[in-house]
C-alpha cells in the first residue's frame, strides 16, 4: 500500500490521463478554466502586462499584493502579504520560519498528510487532535487540553480538508483566545475558503492567525503557481528571512498575469459556482439514496468541492479503492491518507457531465461491492 499521498496523487493523475473511459473522482480542485484563461490572456493589454513585469519584485510583485489586498480588504497589504508558488510553498516557509526542532505542534485530524510531513521535517513533535465526530467541527476543548509547555503552533484548515466543514468567525475568535492564553500561533490553510463567499481570511479576525491560500482549489488555476500568506506585520517580518531562502521560485510572468486577472475576476467566480452547483445537485440525487440506505455515512457538505463519507461495514477502504480502480475504472481517494481509513474522498470539482457519470458509476459499484461483502 502506498503511504505517501502526494506520490499516490501524481501516480493517479498520470493513470487517469492515460486511461480511456476512466472516471476521475479523485481530484480535489475545480476544473481548470483553460478556455476562459486563454481568452482572458488574449485580452490582456500588452502595455499593462509589461508595466507589471517591470515592477520591483523582491518580496513579490506589488500589483499582485495590492490586488489581493483589495480583494480581501487587507489593510497595508505590503506589510501583511508574502507571495509564494502556492499554499504548500507558503506552509513550508511558515513551518521553517516559526517552528523549531523539539517544539510541539497540534494538528487537526483528519488532516491533509503534508501538514504532518512538513512539521516532521523541521523536527517538531506532533499531536493530532480529532475534530468532533458528529459534525467535523473543531473540538476547542480537546485542542486546549493537548497544549503542553513546548507547544508553539496549531494547524487547521478552513474549509476543513477533507470534510469541507466551515469554521465560522465566532469559533475562530474562541480559538484565538486559547492561542493567546498559551502564546501560540495558529496556521489556517484557506485554499478552499473562497467557497464561502464574503468570509474573511482568519488573519483578519485576530493576529494570532496566519492564513495561507492560493488560486488552485477554488479557481482551478494551478498552472499560474500563485499562492500567498497573510499575517500580522511583525509575523511577516519574522518570516521574511526564511521566505528569501525558500520562496524565490515564483514566476514574474505568471504573477504579472495574476495581477491583471484579479482586477476582473467575476468570470472565474462564475466558473466555480456553476460547477459546484451542478455537481452538488448530481451528488445529492445520486448519493443520497446510498446515505439513506446506510451505505455511506456523512452528509454531503453545503460548500466546497469534495465529499468525505465513511463507507459502512469497512474499517479500511484500501481494498475497495483498489477494486474500484482495477475493475470499474473509478478513482477516489482512500481515507488513510488523511488518517481516516474507513472513509473515501470524492471529488466534485470536475466538469459536470463527467462528474455525474462518475458518480453514477460509483453508486452502482458500491452497491455491487456491498453485495459481495
Radius of gyration over alpha carbons? 21 Å
Main beta sheet: strand number and arrangement? 7 strands, mixed
CATH class of the largest domain: Alpha Beta
Distance between the termini: 21 Å
User: What share of residues are in beta strands?
Assistant: 5-15%
- What's the helix count? 14
Specify the overall morphology.
globular
**Helical fraction:** 40-55%
The CATH topology assignment of the largest domain is Aspartate Aminotransferase, domain 2
CATH superfamily of the largest domain: Type I PLP-dependent aspartate aminotransferase-like (Major domain)
CATH second-level architecture of the largest domain: 3-Layer(aba) Sandwich
For the residues shown, what is the average pLDDT? 94
Strand line-up of the largest beta sheet: 2-8-7-6-5-3-4
Q: Give the number of domains.
A: 2
pLDDT < 50 runs, ≥5 residues: none
In terms of structural class, how would the helical and strand content be classed?
alpha/beta
Count every beta strand, where a strand is a DSSP E run of 2 or more residues: 14
The SSE order reads HEHHHHEHEHEHEHEEEHHHEEEHEEEH
Q: Which descriptors apply to this entry?
A:
single chain; 373 residues; alpha/beta; Aspartate Aminotransferase, domain 1; Aspartate Aminotransferase, domain 2; seven-stranded mixed sheet; three-stranded antiparallel sheet; 14 helices
How would you describe what is shown here?
By secondary structure, the protein is an alpha/beta fold. The protein contains 14 helices and 14 strands. The mean pLDDT is 94. The protein is globular. The strands form four sheets. The chain has a seven-stranded mixed sheet with strand order 2-8-7-6-5-3-4, with helices on both faces. A three-stranded antiparallel sheet has the order 10-14-13, with no helix packed on it. A two-stranded parallel ribbon has the order 1-12. Helix 12 packs parallel to helix 14. The longest helix has 27 residues.
Amino acid at each position: 500500500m502506498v503511504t505517501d499521498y502526494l506520490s499516490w496523487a501524481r501516480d493517479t493523475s498520470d493513470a487517469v490521463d492515460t486511461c480511456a473511459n476512466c472516471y476521475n473522482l479523485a481530484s480535489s480542485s475545480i476544473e481548470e478554466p483553460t478556455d476562459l484563461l486563454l481568452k482572458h490572456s488574449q485580452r490582456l493589454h500588452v502595455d499593462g502586462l509589461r508595466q507589471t513585469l517591470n515592477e520591483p519584485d523582491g518580496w513579490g510583485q506589488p500589483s499582485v499584493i495590492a490586488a489581493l489586498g483589495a480583494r480581501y480588504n487587507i489593510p497595508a497589504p505590503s506589510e501583511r502579504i508574502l507571495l509564494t508558488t502556492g499554499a504548500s510553498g507558503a506552509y513550508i516557509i511558515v513551518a521553517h520560519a516559526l517552528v523549531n526542532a523539539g517544539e510541539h505542534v497540534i494538528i487537526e485530524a483528519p488532516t491533509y498528510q503534508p501538514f504532518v510531513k512538513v512539521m516532521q521535517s523541521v523536527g517538531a513533535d506532533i499531536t493530532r487532535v480529532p475534530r468532533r465526530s458528529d459534525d467535523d467541527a473543531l473540538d476547542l476543548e480537546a485542542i486546549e487540553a493537548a497544549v503542553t509547555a513546548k507547544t508553539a503552533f496549531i494547524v487547521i484548515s478552513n474549509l476543513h480538508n477533507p470534510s469541507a466543514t466551515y469554521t465560522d468567525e465566532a469559533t475562530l475568535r474562541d480559538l484565538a483566545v486559547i492561542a493567546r492564553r498559551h502564546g501560540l500561533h495558529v496556521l489556517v490553510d484557506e485554499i478552499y475558503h473562497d467557497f464561502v463567499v464574503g468570509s474573511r481570511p482568519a488573519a483578519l479576525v485576530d493576529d494570532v492567525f496566519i492564513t495561507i491560500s492560493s488560486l488552485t482549489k477554488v479557481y482551478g488555476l494551478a498552472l499560474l503557481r500563485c499562492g500567498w500568506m497573510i499575517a500580522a506585520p511583525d509575523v511577516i517580518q519574522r518570516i521574511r528571512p526564511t521566505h528569501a531562502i525558500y520562496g524565490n521560485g515564483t514566476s514574474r510572468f505568471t504573477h504579472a498575469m495574476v495581477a491583471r486577472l484579479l482586477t476582473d475576476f467575476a468570470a472565474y467566480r462564475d466558473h466555480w459556482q456553476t460547477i459546484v452547483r451542478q455537481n452538488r445537485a448530481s451528488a445529492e440525487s445520486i448519493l443520497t439514496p446510498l446515505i439513506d440506505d446506510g451505505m455511506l455515512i456523512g452528509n454531503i457538505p453545503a460548500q466546497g468541492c469534495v465529499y468525505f463519507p465513511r463507507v459502512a461495514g469497512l474499517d479500511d477502504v484500501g481494498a475497495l479503492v483498489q477494486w474500484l480502480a482495477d475493475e470499474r475504472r473509478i478513482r477516489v481517494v482512500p481515507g488513510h491518507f488523511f488518517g481516516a481509513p474507513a472513509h473515501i474522498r470524492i471529488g466534485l470539482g470536475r466538469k459536470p457531465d463527467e462528474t455525474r457519470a462518475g458518480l453514477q458509476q460509483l453508486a452502482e459499484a458500491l452497491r455491487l461491492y456491498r453485495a459481495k461483502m
